[in-house]
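How it folds:
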Amino acid sequence: MLGRHVPEDFSEILLLSGNGYGIGAFKLLRGLYERVVTMTYLLQHPEKAEDFADWHLIEKQKLVNHLLGGRRRPGQVFHERRTDRDSRRGGADQGTGPEGAAFVD
């Protein structure tokens, strides 16, 4: 998903900057840069890729908590998901815990 947008963003940046719309090109450049940095990190740390992909579960739970006034913390959702995944694999992953730095509430 991340990599699919990079070539398209690059083409749009070239098109905008070549036609005098430098401010618009800068707006797209920020997103392009962030995607490239994220992809580079995930390529260097493939064990973090599944956690990155699962982050949407945390965001969905935050929204549900906000809308319903629930008391369940987003970190619990991640921990439960990771525990289920680890039990299917037959052991725990080596990595950050459910309250790790990358997954702060």
Notes: The chain has two domains: 2-44, 47-100. Helices lie at 2-18, 22-44, 49-68, 74-89. The mean pLDDT is 79.
